[in-house]
Write a structure and sequence with these properties.
Structural class: alpha/beta
Oligomer: single chain
Radius of gyration: 24 Å
CATH topology of one domain: Rossmann fold
CATH class of one domain: Alpha Beta
Number of strands: 19
Distance between the termini: 44 Å
Helix content: 25-40%
Number of helices: 21
Length: 544
């Protein structure tokens, strides 16, 4: 009888005496695509990490049976029976060959998973040298091919870049290439398309499907995006608070959900609840002919005689008024995030850019008043939060700089009120103020990042993919919070996202960017319902 590739039996995972995974069991066959869906903190990621003992300080019990197999061992006339191992019982030295070769991971936050000191090509090549015994030259050639397969343009040039020189979507595709380098039998994809724009999301999912069929590997997809599940997976399991509450074929579970929790996930589309834009409201950000460029080295010997210039943003014009939201959409690498960094004064720019009538000076003392007015929530909360600071230190850091008039009690009161506003309370998280970022799930960390920005009471929030790491129900809560804050405080948002549901729920105006240029802009209904530019039509069509 054919055994499953992976058999999980009564798996329990606990931290500090509290169970986060409560006796789950399931099978995963070679060649199967299984999706694991649930809210942040439901136990999805820790379940997968427990397979190869990547959970520090966790108490793990139960059985995780791994039956090493491939297409050849499963032939009817195969003479050697595949070996079954209990991964929970293996020692560290026995897991070395399994990690990255038999079981590979694509992690949710590529900026923290990639080494900032090495080029992305070197990091992929290292996997190929270690896991597939390639020579340096062979490994580099294969690394470039893998980068090309994942859809990154100019793969030879990109292979020589460092992680910080790539966009968020490009970094995620590098992670996918690195995971595929070892030709694993099981690929664990933990939110693999979170950082990608929607047009590339489809391409990456199609690529994973093609590779899965070509090599016959199994894929465990961890995601909060039900559209991704519909597009990619064969089977789905729904997790709530460490338990599997419903499972079965994707079309059956998502079309006819039986469990109330599954029904709630499916019906978690964010509603639009914003006040109409006031065209006479004060201007908070105004840009005219905004340009951002970077020096780049020429390839080969030509680099000895000077470099070229890469223009990331070309002559952009936009206005952002009090109480309004400007949504910026476009493919990965289109210049969206660079535009946000320019608005924040974090990268030098040319052209006219004013913040409430003032301009960035590029000097910390002169720019300090503007810093309080314009705060940011980054796409990757884990890399933007210091791992050495607890919650109280993280949130109070801005108050120390921008609200020195507050005494210790006033700062503490402001911190607790702001944390409660984003759904983080002492009741739900005992010892909240003394916890560290790594003790929270991805969605909880994003709420913490929003609190860190809100605590200084800014006029403008720059939101760079603020909900891309959140499950549907947590996304709904965060968007409702942002809508409420805008109504009550007149906050303005510069919203960068690839999620049309977020644009529909939040934006008053939309700006579509391609290759650093604005190809179309206008009211949200006009852009999403009757787009004029061919690129916008393609992009919005992919977003639907």
């Amino acid at each position: 009888m054919r055994l499953p590739l992976l058999q999980v039996r009564d798996l329990r995972i606990g931290f500090q005496g509290e169970d986060v995974v409560k006796g789950i069991s399931f099978n995963l066959d070679l060649g199967e695509k299984l999706a694991l869906v649930g809210e942040s903190g439901s136990g999805k990621s820790v379940t997968a990490l427990s397979f190869v003992k990547l959970l520090e300080g966790a108490r793990v019990s139960g059985r995780v049976l791994w039956t090493a197999q491939d297409a050849e061992t499963l032939r009817a006339d195969a003479t050697d029976a595949p070996q079954t191992l209990d991964l929970i019982k293996l020692k560290e030295r026995d897991l070395v060959n399994i990690r990255g070769q038999d079981i590979a991971f694509v992690f949710q936050e590529p900026m923290t998973a990639l080494n900032p000191l090495f080029t992305v090509g070197d990091q992929i090549a290292e996997v190929l040298e270690v896991k597939r015994a390639m020579s340096r030259a062979e490994a580099w050639h294969e690394a470039v091919e893998l980068i090309n397969l994942t859809g990154i343009p100019e793969p030879v040039r990109r292979a020589s870049m460092y992680p910080h020189q790539l966009s968020g979507g490009q970094r995620q595709r590098v992670m996918i290439a690195m995971a595929l380098a070892g030709r694993p039998r099981l690929l664990v994809a933990d939110e693999p398309t979170t950082a990608l724009d929607v047009s590339l999301r489809t391409q990456i999912l199609d690529l994973l499907s093609d590779l899965q069929k070509r090599f016959g590997m199994a894929v465990l997809l961890i995601t909060h995006d039900l559209n991704t599940v519909r597009q990619f997976a064969d089977q789905v399991m729904v997790m709530e608070k460490g338990c599997i509450v419903e499972s079965g074929q994707v079309d059956v579970v998502l079309t006819y959900p039986e469990h109330p929790y599954t029904q709630r996930l499916i019906n978690s589309q964010p509603p639009r609840d914003v006040v109409a834009a006031n065209v006479k409201a004060p201007l908070l950000i105004q840009a005219k002919g905004l340009r951002v460029s970077y020096p780049i080295r020429r390839a080969g010997w030509r680099g000895w005689f000077g470099g070229d210039t890469f223009e990331a943003v070309h002559g952009v014009h936009f206005d952002l008024r009090a109480g309004q939201t400007l949504g910026v959409i476009g493919e990965s690498g289109s210049g969206k995030t660079t535009l946000a960094l320019a608005a924040l004064g974090l990268v030098p720019s040319q052209g006219a850019l004013s913040i409430a009538g003032a301009s960035w000076q590029g000097k910390s003392v002169q720019d300090l008043p503007l810093r309080r007015q314009v705060q940011v929530v980054f796409q990757d909360p884990f890399s933007s939060l210091s791992p050495r600071m607890n919650v109280q230190e993280l949130v109070s850091e801005g108050l120390t700089l921008h609200a020195p008039e507050l005494d210790a009690l006033g700062r503490l009161r402001r911190i607790l009120v702001t944390l409660a506003a984003v759904g983080l309370t002492e009741i739900e998280f005992p010892g909240l103020l003394q916890r560290y970022a790594h003790e929270f799930s991805g969605g909880q960390r994003q709420r913490l990042a929003i609190a860190r920005a809100l605590v200084v009471q800014p006029k403008v929030l720059v939101l760079d993919e603020p909900t891309s790491a959140l499950d549907a129900t947590t996304q709904l809560q965060v968007l409702q919070l942002l809508q409420k804050l805008q109504r009550e405080r007149g906050l303005s948002y510069l919203l960068i996202t690839h999620d049309v549901a977020v644009i529909r729920a939040m934006a008053h105006h939309v700006m579509v960017m391609q290759a650093g240029k604005v190809v179309e802009s206008g009211p949200v209904d006009q852009i999403l319902n009757t787009p004029q530019a061919p690129y916008t039509q393609i992009l919005v069509g992919a977003l639907r």
